[in-house]
Amino acid sequence: MKTLKDYLIPQDEHTFHVPYRVAYLVFTWLVTSLILNAYTQLLSPLVPASHLTRELCICGGQILFQSVVAVVANKNKALAYLGNMMTVSFIGALLLLPGLMFTQGTYSAEGHLVWFTIVVGIMFFEHIRRVKLLGMPWFMSLTWVLYRVLVLWVIL
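Below the sequence we write its predicted structure tokens.
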């Protein structure tokens, strides 16, 4: 009998349809970029104002960067990992929506930065959990953070 884990984390490439997985990656990439673009406006002047092209490049760059790492780590689980990584990003984006919908104009940029930091923490622990469930090496989470730190360094 299959468990919830079996449905959430495919064990091999034959348990999911590759074109659907790619479509899911593109969908989550676009939606996450749109939400991040809107949310970063609330962080100004603490973070330079963003634009959609920048957010698309950052999110797309994460997919490309982690694709290379995932293939090196375990090419058989790379696509499953990418789906899980983008699910984590999508969850993070959805957690930012209340800040966009209900608090615009209510909280300062600092308040929005605090919420953003909490969301990033949630995403980090969820990423670690999913990497373990996939049986991927721990450094997958390290490179996931490394990419984000490098991007932040470039932006600031």
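The chain is about 80% helix and 0% strand.
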